[in-house]
Amino acid sequence: MISSELTNKNGHLMIGGVDSVDLASKYQTPLVVYDVEEIRNQVRLFKNSFEKSGLNYQISYASKAFAAVGIYQVLNQEDVHTDVVSGGELFTALKAGFPADKISFHGNNKSQEELEMAVDNHVGVIILDNFYEIGLLEEILETKDAKTNVMLRLTPGISAHTHKYDQTGQVDSKFGFDVGSGQASEALQRVLSNKRMNLIGIHAHIGSQIFGVEGFVMLVKKMFEIAEDWKNKFSYVPQVINLGGGFGISYNDQDEAIGPDVFIQKIVETVKQQAKAKDLALPEIWIEPGRSIVGPAGYSLYTIGSRKDVPDLTSYVNVDGGMGDNIRPALYQAKYEAVVANKMDEKLTEDVHIAGKYCESGDILIDHQKLPDTKAGDILAILDTGAYGYSMASNYNRNPRPAVVFAEDGHDKLVVERESYEDLVKLDRNYI
After folding, report:
1. Which of 131, 170, 247, 370 has a 20 to 30 Å separation from 340 between CA atoms?
2. Which of the following is catalytic: 1, 310, 313, 359?
């Protein structure tokens, strides 16, 4: 929940040193606001945890959590890598001036155009996901007389304890080369035989919103088993082992998240043990946090409008946004917490449903939320919405997507403009 330090003398929620009520008035609602200092602090916490270990490492921000020019510029200031999963994310990162050699390109169905874009812009590494993609890249590199760094994405057969849609490391997954069937070894030999591809390492990702270290320990052990096997059979030792992301955050009191330092400490400990046990050189370790970097830094501000009160039933408090700017409650049954930004000092007096404005009965942002007495015009702030909110936003019901503002050191700056109604129809063409 919100600490008293984030409440000003007027009883208003403060974000990045700026009054959230003033932000709602200045930029209108719905509005997504990021506390930039909190983003920087999370990045530095990951980096500092690795620095203590003595291992070579890279922090690669998972762009899908939130991609915009502004976030890439902040991350570039913090000297980290980023991974992209589409031509659009790649274009945005390049537009932001993010160094191409610090970009990894993921995806299970990269198009020829996207791969050409990656090769032409000399991205740091293309993470190969399937045999079709290997074939496409072989042709592109030959045609362009080019070379590129690559990794192989593996499905190691490990399932994280998370939502079923977020589990990506198990065998039955659309991602990566299966290890158990021998597909991964086949991919390895094919890539090693192509002199235009420089295979720098192996990658796996076991899921999202993970609260325990056990899955990562299992993953490290499995990746070293693969490395040892490939050293013995094919004389190949990966320079890089990329363990993906999925570090969980606390959205509510029921989420028992652990800090990045705990994850990193256990990962490092296991890496060193495995390298020694298998007589392998210590590889460079990459991780790909996304949610854990931007999630806690994000706030969604809404204006409260109508409400529905029925005797003996929980009341509905309706806001001017909803599933169009945060699909996670409807898609994943994600649970959030909220506060009334202009009434932070008032007592909680009622339990309500927080409902969106979209024409769907499932458009409930929070099923049960304790709030002070509210009225139309109050500003509701939903906490920890910085990941997979704006990035998954839609124009459902022809509603414009919200603006995004960065707040830091008492200053605010618009980094994504609010869409207008004209924006909604600018790609439409007359039929008659």
Report:
1. 247
2. 359
pTM: 0.94
Rounded Cα distance between 60 and 423, Å, is 33
Residue pair 359/30 in contact (Cβ under 8 Å)? The answer is: no
Check: CB of residue 124 under 8 Å from CB of residue 149: yes
- Phi and psi at residue 10, in whole multiples of 5°? -90, 0
402 is in an annotated binding site: no
Question: What is d(CA 314, CA 226) in angstroms, rounded to the nearest whole number?
Answer: 54
Q: What residue type is 160 in one-letter code? A: A
Name beta bridge partners: 413: 406
Q: What is the CATH number of domain 4-35+297-425?
A: 2.40.37.10
Dist CA 293 CA 386 (whole Å) = 9
| Residue 107 designated active-site | no
| Length of the chain counted residue by residue | 432
- 196 is annotated as contributing to ligand binding: no
Q: Is 388 annotated as a binding residue?
A: yes
Question: Looking at domain 52-291, which of 3.90.226.10, 3.40.50.300, 1.10.4080.10, 3.20.20.10 is its CATH number?
Answer: 3.20.20.10
**CATH 3.20.20.10 residue spans of the chain:** 52-291
User: Torsions phi, psi of 332, nearest 5?
Assistant: -115, 0
What are the tokens at 420? 């207008």
pLDDT per residue, tens digit, the chain (432 aa), is 566 678 999 999 999 999 999 999 999 999 999 999 999 999 999 999 999 898 999 999 999 999 999 999 999 999 999 999 999 999 999 999 999 999 999 999 999 999 999 999 999 999 999 999 999 999 999 999 999 999 999 998 876 654 343 344 456 678 899 998 999 999 999 999 999 999 999 999 998 888 888 989 999 999 999 999 999 999 999 999 999 998 888 898 878 788 888 999 999 999 999 999 999 999 999 999 999 999 999 999 999 999 999 999 999 999 999 999 999 999 999 999 999 999 999 999 999 999 999 999 999 999 999 999 999 999 999 999 999 999 999 999 999 999 999 999 999 999 999 999 999 999 999 999
- What's the token pair of residue 193? 């035989």
Is 51 annotated in a binding site? The answer is no
Rounded CA separation 21/44 (Å) = 29
Residue showing tokens 């898609």: 331
Token output for 298:
């994000």
Measured torsion, CA atoms of residues 271, 54, 57, 41, in degrees rounded to the nearest 10: 110
| 246 known member of a binding site | yes
Q: Is 291 annotated as a binding residue?
A: yes
